[in-house]
Design goal:
The strands form three sheets. Strands 1, 2, 8, 9, 10, 11, 17 and 18 form an eight-stranded mixed β-sheet that branches. This protein has an eight-stranded mixed β-sheet with strand order 5-6-4-13-14-15-12-16. The protein contains ten helices and 18 strands. The two termini are 42 Å apart. Helix content is 27%, strand content 27%. The protein is α/β, with parallel strands linked by helices.
Length: 416
């Protein structure tokens, strides 16, 4: 079933009775070429690109809940490629280019909106750091522009420019950045993979990983055993628990990351805005609600809920940069479980067990990486070689002394 303006018009005058399910409710088979553990954005994107780009259609995506129940439906929807280090910037720019054609490729409205991402800076040293970041972005083919205070006042006159503690001196803007509807991205990839023959199986929890003589042969699930030539772990904040089924301990910690939505307001934000003197980021949804977030909760947890000290910290950041937010009422809040790596960068790699692969450690960057993560993971699964833009995301980089520490915070996951 394809979507078009004509189809919407026709269904509208016919009472919307002709719409069909977006994907099949597939039952698991006893064997597949590839089994992907995790039906979030990354897992579904991997299945889609495996089928489309590499012709591997004998694939099952196993999701323990419903599609969109994990982090892909619990984030602040930001897409961007404003990274600095050579291990990261080409990858995220590749993802940005995939985002730009995603809706046309999938024939699905993921509400991709390139409304810009603006990072504020508040000191001379921060300005210099942002200028360096902008140059790295331009060298990778991304767009970047430094704005002075005069330009910012014209763009966002309501920011607190004269804050004595955090005076705004300018900003780095990426006009191609923006937002997308998080759960629609998962639905679009699920529909695309299903149309290519992939089995998307919901309510199918993996309870064990079968290993014989150092080779992964399949998985155990609550719906029976499934044999596979290759098993791909792609479980975000639950990656540690899934890897433990194979006797592995990953260099990640799972933390809660909270997000918030205010009541609907008249349009005021031109795009995504981040506070440079604290951890606060905000955008405005098409319904008018302010969507914002900040730091992770400091303790390890698998629970999709947060606590009030982090709420207070996030709201303090918002009040410092845009005091008008104090007059808005909070409509709802939620938590996602993020897999924080030791250097703040992810893993797309083979494991020491033949036939078992890992995609994890995305920290804050998981949603914006969805297309490139799926494409590069599919490349690895199909060829057993890392994609060119993901070749630094090896799990052994700590042993080799080659961390990708984008924030320069050291080996503390909670600081990334």
């Amino acid at each position: 079933m394809g979507y078009s303006a004509f189809r919407i018009f026709r269904e509208g005058i016919a009472g919307n009775k002709g719409w069909k399910p977006v994907w099949r409710d597939a039952a698991p088979k006893s064997r597949y070429d590839t089994v992907i553990i995790g039906g979030g954005g990354h897992g579904l994107a991997t299945a889609y690109y495996l089928a489309k780009e590499f012709g591997v259609t004998d694939v099952a995506v196993l999701e323990k809940g419903w599609l969109g129940s994990g982090n892909v439906g619990r984030n602040t929807t930001i897409i961007r490629s404003n990274y600095l280090l050579p291990g990261n910037q080409p990858f995220y720019e590749f993802s940005m280019k995939l985002w730009e054609n995603l809706e046309q490729e999938l024939n699905y409205n993921a509400m991709v909106s390139q409304r810009s991402v603006l990072n504020l800076f508040h000191s001379d040293s921060q300005r210099d750091a942002f200028a360096r970041r902008a140059n790295a972005m331009l060298m990778s083919g991304a767009d970047a522009e430094l704005l002075d205070v005069k330009e910012l006042r014209r763009l966002c006159p309501w920011l607190n420019y004269d804050n004595a503690r955090f005076p705004i001196q300018g900003g780095l803007i990426q006009k191609r950045g923006g937002t997308a509807r998080h759960d629609a991205v998962a639905w679009g990839y699920a529909r695309g993979a299903d149309r290519l023959g992939v089995d998307v199986i919901q309510n199918c929890e993996v309870t064990g990983i079968d290993i014989e003589n150092g080779i992964c042969t399949g998985v155990q699930t609550n719906r029976g055993p499934i044999l596979a030539n290759k098993v791909a772990m792609c479980a975000a904040g639950s990656s540690g628990r899934v890897a433990a089924l194979a006797g592995m301990r990953l260099p990640i910690e799972s933390h809660v990351l909270q997000a918030f939505v205010s009541e609907g307001l008249k349009p005021v934000l031109p795009g995504v805005i981040t506070f440079g003197a604290g951890h606060f980021y905000v955008s405005q949804s098409d319904k008018g609600g302010l969507v914002f977030g900040g730091d992770i909760d400091g303790y390890n947890s698998y629970a999709q809920r947060g606590n009030l000290p982090t709420v207070e910290d996030v709201c303090e950041g918002g009040m410092a940069v845009m005091p008008m937010i104090g007059r808005a009422r909070l409509l709802r809040m939620w938590g996602g479980v993020v897999d924080m790596s030791m250097d703040g960068s992810p893993f797309i790699d083979r494991t020491h067990i033949d036939g078992l692969y890992l995609n994890a450690g995305w920290c804050y960057g998981g949603f914006k990486a969805t297309p490139a993560s799926g494409y590069c993971y599919a490349h690895l699964l199909a060829t057993d070689r890392p994609h060119e833009v993901a070749k630094e995301y090896r799990i052994d980089r700590f042993l080799r002394g080659a961390p990708i520490d984008e924030k320069g915070q050291g080996a503390q996951p909670n600081l990334h």
